Amino acid sequence: MAGAAARAGVCRMTLEPKLADPVQLAIPAFILLVLIEIGVARLRGEAAYEIRDTAASLAMGLGNLVIALVLAAATYIAANRVYQYRLLDLGYTWWSFLLVLFAEDFTYYWFHRLSHRSRFWWAAHINHHSSQHYNLSTALRQTWTGGLFQWVLWLPLALAGFPPALIVFQKGVSLVYQFWIHTETIRRLPWWFEAVMNTPSHHRVHHATNPRYLDRNYAGVLIVWDRLFGSFVAEDEREPCRYGIVKNIGTFNPLRIAFHEWVAIGQDLAQAPSWRAQLAYAFGLPGWSPDGSRQTTDAIRAAWRARCDAPTKR
Amino acid sequence: MAPTNPVAMLIPLGGIALILAVVWLIGGARRARLDRALVLRRLDEDLPGFAAAEVSIDGDAAAAIAATADGASLALIFAAGDKVVVRPLVPRDIKRVAQQPMRDGVRLVIETGDFTHGRFELRLSSAEAARWQARLPAPACAA
Q1: Long-range own/partner contacts, residues B61-68 (CB < 8 A, 24 or more apart)
Q2: CATH number (domain holding residue B117)
């Protein structure tokens, strides 16, 4: 086992920006790809972009970038603190780069699933789903509040022995990968790619509010997690995706987009009849209410199935 | 994750300006125009089971109000950019209802506690506005 001084050395080392920031490097490509998508949609006669929606998405992306800058030091310090107690020394070998891809993506899958199944986490994630458009600018409609606590879920990777800089690098790779799948321009890719990787088709389903598609396809890079844990649904060409959230927002104000669900939680907590109700409002399924006057996604899907199964009136 | 060099922030800022300029140039500044078919379709998608019996669309085709046959359920439908948002009109959410006279009718104003869109305006004929105001929940109107 390494001594305290050696560990401190490693700790300092991991704080150094040893690895390139994939997100920063990708920003010019993001801009170029958005412009190409606008052009392709224009040629096809599709109304993919609306200016206020696009401006809101880009403002959310810029805000996220600034907030990440502010919070980066805090998250690095926390990760390095945990890294001091690591179980293994995985370092920067070729296989650790390969291993972290799977480990980070597995973590992302459960983080993303939690972000849809617990209202506290949903409040930070909902803004990413708040556009009724689905285009590359939607990919940039990122959270402003998630950076305060979402990183906690990645700490086990540091405890396992992945250097924090490697984890941050892989998170960046994942974010960059997930950019290009926010498009309707690409319909389907070869079957072998669709079988393993997250694709535009799979992710359209994730952003759709059609009951059959709700809360499905949580994958980041590899769709295999959804197939493995029973949350996969294939896109059905007979049922085009309707994008947005169950209760769509009526604003393009970035502040309201970022905080509307937090405000709603606060309003519900103030009116909750008991502390149990307060807990369920804050951490239960989004859409939960003590009197059942609202619908969770499970209830929406059950009602849809009941309608589908009901005999057609003649 | 984030650029440490302030100059690096100029790239995303310049990119945003360029993208918005292109979207504007290709006619991206547009608004949905409501008609009865669109309103009924969106009600069916967003509020399954809401069988609209009466629908009034405002003079600018930017908003609409709908009611079920028994009048027990009301909904507001409004344009948000080139998309449409549907809101069930729940009595406890309504904060204020008012009519503002206009040159060619009345503006029916409905204010709710909705954080993302709390004020709805519908340009209607005087008769339509009066009819809808009468149908809105009495306690909320009194408040």
Answers
A1: B61/B33, B61/B34, B61/B35, B62/B31, B62/B32, B62/B33, B62/B34, B63/B34, B63/B120, B63/B121, B63/B122, B64/B34, B64/B39, B64/B122, B65/B89, B65/B108, B65/B122, B65/B132, B66/B39, B67/B135
A2: 2.30.29
B25 occurs within a structural domain: no
Q: Which residue of A has its CA nearest to B32?
A: A50
Q: What is the pTM of this model?
A: 0.91
Q: Residue B114 falls within a domain, yes or no? A: yes
Across the interface, whether the CB atoms of B2 and A68 are under 8 A apart is answered yes
Which residue range is the domain that position B45 belongs to?
36-140
Q: How many Cα atoms within 13 Å fall on the side-chain side of residue A37?
A: 25
CA dihedral A73, A75, A76, A78 (to 10 degrees): 120
Say how many domains are in chain B.
1
As for the ipTM of the complex, it is 0.90
User: What residues contact A201, with CB distance under 8 A and at least 6 apart?
Assistant: A186, A187, A188, A189, A194, A234, A235
What lies within 8 Å, CB to CB, of A86 at 6+ separation is: A158, A159, A160, A161
| Residue B23 within any structural domain of the chain | no
Q: Look up residue A72 and give its two tokens.
A: 């980066």
Facing residue for A31 by CB, picked from B18, B23, B28: B18
Q: Which residues of A touch B3 (CB under 8 A)?
A: 21, 24, 65, 69
pLDDT of the residue at A48:
87
User: Does the residue B29 lie in any domain?
Assistant: no
CA distance B87 to chain A (A): 8
Q: Which two tokens stand for residue B125?
A: 């004929």
A54 neighbors B20 (Cβ within 8 angstroms):
yes
Contact A132 B80 (CB under 8 A): yes
Q: Write out chain B's pLDDT in tens, 143 residues.
A: 445 566 777 889 999 999 999 999 999 999 999 999 999 999 999 998 899 999 999 999 999 999 998 888 999 999 999 999 999 998 888 999 999 998 888 999 999 989 999 999 999 999 999 999 988 875 444 44
